[in-house]
Amino acid sequence: MARTTDRHVVIVGASLAGTRAAQGLRTLGYAGPITLIGGEKELPYDRPPLSKHLLASDWSDEVIEGNRLMTPAELDELAIEVRLGTAAVALNPVTKAVTLSDGSSVAYDVLIIATGAAARPSPWNPSSGVLQLRTLDDSRAISARLALKEHVVIVGGGFIGTEIAAAALKAGCPVTVVDPVAEPMARLVGPEIASILVELHLRNGAQTRFGVGVTDIQGEEGALTVVLDDGTRLEASTAVVGIGSIPSTSWLVGSGLTINNGVLTDPFLRAVGADDIYAIGDVAQWPHPGRGTDHRAEHWTNASDQARYVATAITGGEVQPYT
Ligand SMILES: Cc1cc2nc3c(=O)[nH]c(=O)nc-3n(C[C@H](O)[C@H](O)[C@H](O)COP(=O)(O)OP(=O)(O)OC[C@H]3O[C@@H](n4cnc5c(N)ncnc54)[C@H](O)[C@@H]3O)c2cc1C
Asked: What are the structural domain ranges in the chain?
């Protein structure tokens, strides 16, 4: 086996978990080669601001660069080879190689899977006008629509839907939030806080249609009709569909890894049956000791913590089962 410092660590997914893992390895003294592979062309950026202050920003270079997780100078300084705009399309754990969308192949000694999650696709797809939010470009597109101050229907009353609603109201748009669940936030924050949040939205002027599903979205950008299952037809300029996310694992089909709502790992975040492959962040499903079940978290803090944890494990530090 190669000495620790000669091993090639390949990280697939150049966002929070991936960049924090690379930074963590260097901080802990790992001097071997690190390759960071990202499907997006963008330098790594932070996602929480996409549904918050960026929606109301002027999208200046200063704002965008201020939201980066790593600058080109830092990547240089840390000697991290970055391959952006090339998604991983296949993994062969036997030959220890990742195939990229440009047809090239990258060999690894240790692989970190940090491909996160994507917005659950909208089931309603008129020719235009239905937007979703996961990437910088998505946020920019929504922000441009909010600037028109026209009616926005938001499908999904979870965290992201309500944050977009708040930004849309602040921008001066009439807003309706639709969710088939009567108390959509209750499953996330409990019934008491959920009702406070609904109150807050109502007070700020949003209409809510909770407990009513969407059956169709028709028309086009600027002239949409959102059809509800009680027969109501809501006219809207823009619809934003925020109905959750799904872990990005399609590139692992055929790899032999166990995929079950994410990459299933052992308690040490190693992919089940593959000790040289770790999965971290939104894509990882691990046996949570406290909960007694497999668990996948979509939280900023968890992605950062898991990145630091695997950096420690890879550099030979002592680790306990990840909680
Ligand atoms: C709008 C929004 C607001 C949020 N707000 C909060 C908040 O307030 N608080 C909080 O705790 N969390 C929040 N989150 C969640 C938080 O951002 C995520 O938990 C965090 O980004 C997870 O990081 P990650 O690196 O695991 O995954 P991601 O951020 O999803 O990054 C995965 C990266 O991998 C890339 N990728 C995917 N497939 C491939 C492939 N095959 N090859 C190469 N690259 C690939 C993706 O393009 C992406 O860049 C928010 C998320 C969003 C979208």
From this structure: 4-118+246-314, 121-243
Mean pLDDT over each residue of the chain, to the nearest integer: 95
What's the CA gap between 223 and 236, in Å, rounded?
6
> What CATH homologous superfamily does 121-243 map to?
FAD/NAD(P)-binding domain (3.50.50.60)
User: Which amino acid, 34?
Assistant: I
The three-state secondary structure class of 161 is helix
- CATH-assigned architecture of domain 4-118+246-314: 3-Layer(bba) Sandwich (3.50)
Q: What are phi and psi of 236, to 5 degrees?
A: -150, 155
- Verify whether ligand 1 is closer than 6 Å to residue 53 (CB atom): no
Candidate of 105, 160, 282 to mutate for ligand 1, largest count of ligand atoms within 8 Å of Cβ: 282
211 or 3, higher pLDDT: 211
Q: What is the pLDDT of residue 196?
A: 83
How many angstroms from the chain centroid is the CA of residue 87? 15
Same fold flag, 4-118+246-314 and 121-243: yes
Q: How far is ligand 1, taken at its centre, from the CA of residue 252, in Å?
A: 18
Centroid of ligand 1 to alpha carbon of 113 (angstroms): 13
ipTM of the complex: 0.99
Contact 43 CB / ligand 1 (< 6 Å) = no
Predicted confidence (pLDDT) per residue in 105-146, tens digit = 999 999 999 999 999 999 999 999 999 999 999 999 999 999
Q: Whose CA is nearest to atom 3 of ligand 1?
A: 48
